Amino acid sequence: MNPDDGFRRIGIVGLGLIGGSAAFAARRVFPDAVIVGVDRDGDVAIAARQLGAVHEAGISLDSLAGADLVLLAAPVTANIAALERLSGLLDPGAVVTDVGSTKRAMLDGARRMLPGAPFVGGHPLAGAARGGLEASRPDLFERRPWVLTPEAQTPRPAVARVATFVSRLGAVPIEIDPGVHDHVLAFTSHLPQLTASALMHVVGEAVEDSGLRLAGRGLADTTRVAASPVSIWRDICATNADEILPALDALIETLRQVRDDLAEGHPPDRVFHSAGRWRRKLDG
Amino acid sequence: MNPDDGFRRIGIVGLGLIGGSAAFAARRVFPDAVIVGVDRDGDVAIAARQLGAVHEAGISLDSLAGADLVLLAAPVTANIAALERLSGLLDPGAVVTDVGSTKRAMLDGARRMLPGAPFVGGHPLAGAARGGLEASRPDLFERRPWVLTPEAQTPRPAVARVATFVSRLGAVPIEIDPGVHDHVLAFTSHLPQLTASALMHVVGEAVEDSGLRLAGRGLADTTRVAASPVSIWRDICATNADEILPALDALIETLRQVRDDLAEGHPPDRVFHSAGRWRRKLDG
């Protein structure tokens, strides 16, 4: 298996924003490969073929037979469930990767259910305000980090092959330990999602429709991700709760300090200044 | 005092994003008026004149003598401090308004310190990712709500005059009780700010620079307002703490429920679904 080998048959499971964008990008950069899409929703599979994201599409994993690379882009628990079926389908030398937002549970699943094929965990750090196939675009990964989480026993040629694949999609592959990934993402992604959802719930219930009409750009930005698909976030909560809980505790503790400052007549200066500093770093 | 009278001399105190944008818009829609800008930062005053936002600019409120309308666009406590000086300066018939994010403290100040001139509280619900004079633009208020908070004793001709002024700037005037304003904004604006600041502080301290490099659009959106000027938010906290505290308590309580759900192995479905529903309403 040479990482620079061409890809002849690329399977993509789950044709939402990430899977659909990977399909569009792969069609463009691997013009000789057959792109096969699978989605449990037959209408989405049909739409993916009609939109030209994939050459073949269906609802069954069976169509992935003969693929030399399979990208699992469904929610994490669906990706894990797909592994068992894949293990009987794939040729030796095929490599399997995923795009899930948590990595340890997926790697556990691959060790148990896909002993025959090399599995390389992955997570493209790319997104958009709207999800779904209809929001897909081939440049979604352009210059975005695409985390790969190989373990000590992961064959290096398989890692190199996936790194080649994601580089060709325009992304920048970065290798990170799976546990470090799940810890960091608990703060940089999962905590912001839960916070935005909690905030939107509290604000909506308190002021209702008439009050929301007085909302400005601040609330809209701060809660944008609260419209994200629930299925993805159920899975993230289920597979990373041990890392998310301490992150939630830290936020609750900070909000309590802010509350105490205000109750004592002080602005929460320490938090304002620290937040401003980190926010400017985030912008680079 | 006729609300349709032209404005001959318009004073604007505080030449940040809101004051600067009001100056640019006023120059355009009141071509016969002299626009006078005051900022405690002399460099900002000079820049405002050089950029063409105002005809005259300085650091002293004295230049507002003869104005028929004064718009206070500094942070709330600076606006309150300006009232006393204004009371000795303005001609009978001049009307004073403000753009502060909290209204009850400002109205208390006007009752105490500006007995001679009619004061109409105001709050344009317009903003931008960046603050400051350099981010100002004449179309900032275009079709945005501009809340006015008259009290029972506020002269109706003064309210009509301010409503005319903000309509000409492109905004949509909406009258709301000052207490209702401060309650609703505690949820729709002040709580999101404190939440974004607390979140950014917690995330930055936990993952530091190396982890922030793995952050995607979700964290960036959710924390955008954490880069807002601290001076404005200190004043908002100081003048609306009694409304912000119950809002913070509600958020902390919801985050605790989310935490308990996760600790028991459940996704926080109720919050996810409620948040998604309210978020879609926010988008209209």
Walk me through what this model shows.
Two copies of one chain form a homodimer. Chain A has 284 residues and is of the alpha/beta class. In chain A, the strands form two sheets. In chain A, strands 3-2-1-4-5-6 form a six-stranded parallel β-sheet, with helices on both faces. In chain A, strands 7-8-9 form a three-stranded mixed β-sheet, with helices on one face. In chain A, helix 2 links the parallel strand 2 and strand 3. The first copy, chain A, starts with 8 loop residues before the first strand and ends with a helix. At the A-B interface, helix 6, helix 7, helix 8 and helix 9 of A face helix 6, helix 7, helix 8 and helix 9 of B.
